[in-house]
Amino acid sequence: MNLIKNISILFLILATSIATAQVKFEAKVSKKKLGINERLRIDFEMNQDGDNFVPPSFSDFDVVGGPNTSVSHQYVNGKRSFKKTYSYFLAPKKRGNFTIKQATIEIEGDTYKTFPITVNVTAAVSKPNGKAAASDVAAENIHLVAEVSKSNPYLNEAITVVYKLYVSKHTGVNSWREKDIPRYNDFWSQNIEIKGFPVHVGEYKGEEYRYVILRKTVLYPQKIGALKLEPLVMDVTVEVPSERTDIFGRSLLTRVPRVVTAGSRTINVKALPEEGKPSDFKGAVGNYDFKVSTTKSQLNATESLQAKIEVSGKGNLKLFELPKLTVPSSLEVYEPEHQENIRTNITGMQGKISDTYTIVPQYKGKYPVPNISFSYFDLATESYKRITSDDIVIDVLEGPTAAVTNEEATTADTKQTVNTNTNTFAFIKTNSNWLSIQSEPFFKSTGFWSLLLVPFLAIPLAIVVRRKKDARDADVQGNRIRKADRLAKKYLSEAKKAMGQKESFYLALEKALHNYLKAKLNIETSDFNKEKIESLLSERKVEKEVVSDFISILENCELARYTPIAQVTMQNDYDKAAKTISLIDKQLR
User: Fold this and answer.
1) How far apart are alpha carbons 173 and 199 in whole angstroms?
2) CB within 8 A of 448, min separation 6: which ones?
3) Domain 285-396 has CATH 2.60.40
4) 445-481 pLDDT tens trace
């Protein structure tokens, strides 16, 4: 009997754990019978976070509020519970029995549906909706909205996201706090400082609302295709009127905590056109001026001058390289000093960037500096434009004459006389002094004894080598480290060959990291995303810091294709990748 009792308890525990792990997605209505002058609230609740929520059509109702999204996390007796809700407020169009059809959502790759709900709409009632709960009033009268300036920009074109909190006239906000700040993984981003939170008046879905601007962010997309903007989530304390009144008959306010979200947005980024793209195009997008100038046009040898290459205007100034200065070899040129004077406002970056080269001539003469061209994509005309600098001549007045010039002059002005020699073949030797060689017997010679003794001497040497090999084979940890290092060098060999060529290097580095994961984790390239990689490596007992380093290298590979990268940065990324692959291979279980 005890055995049967224990088995029953075990099955009960298993059934309970399975039930708690099940995904729940259901629709709930505030009432199933309402008057035609009442409003119906419908909530779509789930116990796990999902994507691609699709509501029913609500063809028999007018949507007067929503969708409002709320998220809650609770910990009770050490157990975590999660609930996410999409809420709509509906007004019936006519009387009758109406069926609200299924809503769908994707959770962990599976699609879930709610059950249809039938609602009976009757004639108008004297007290529509009765007493509305404070939470319902708060949900209906406060909205967080993300307004995007452009949803289909070009690559590296500035767009702006403005987050506004709309509050109805009959509701107030006591306080707010950012709960989850969006991360713009595929964008260059900068927040615009907001001084104070002045209250504005505007419209939300045709009704007058008050609103405050909570956050302004300028984004420059760094990839083409559909890029997702993560939502901003906020904790808000809402003040709504209650049924209680003060001694003057004014309604007292009730504070209701709410979690509001702006919802995710998708930005469809267009690639820059290939037609007409100049060969010297470095990724500049915007509207620019370009000039090349020198501080002097005449000087003496060993004196110095500065040559400045400058781009000014409005666009992605921090995200492209300036053209390089090319001068004759007789001019000594030092590494340029890079300067930026850029300000970022709601419309994007504007200002100027420059590279200043110090030039020191060594010899007297006139040295032409070839013209330099700068190409950019003009957003106003949606076409490429090129600006070319004027030719510059550096006149060195005093100084030594270049040695090459003297040699060339001597060669041009001097002709050597060729004298004939009658004894043309005097260098050929016509007699010899041969020596006789007497052969010695091989037996008992040095070579004989060497060949005889070498095998005996090799035996202890072979024993020593064998013991060292056995010890090396027994060193499991050492062999694992050596194997990991060889593996890292194998996968990164192509990236090392492309060192110095930015695009080729980072393409090879990213491919090496992906090939390594395919080999070690047995997953296809199409399955790659940062979240899955992080999950798989964590499951295989790889340390969190190592996983973070691996993800950061992948992000560097994506970003580096569109930003200026120095040789030192490439070397650092290569060394970090080699170290990270080696550590992962040692830690994988």
Assistant:
1) 12
2) 442
3) yes
4) 777 777 777 777 778 888 888 777 777 666 655 555 5
